[in-house]
Amino acid sequence: MLLLKRFDAWDKQAFDRIARADLPLLDALLPHLSSAADNSVLWGLVAGVLMMTGRPRLQRAGLRGLLAISLASPLTSMVAKQAFRRPRPLTDLIPVIRRRRVPASSSLPSGHSASAVAFAVAVARDAPLPVAAPVTLLAAGVAASRVYVGAHYPGDVIAGIAVGAAAGWAARSYGRHLLATTYPRQVRRGKRGSDGGMRPVASRT
Question: What's the pTM?
Answer without folding.
Answer: 0.85
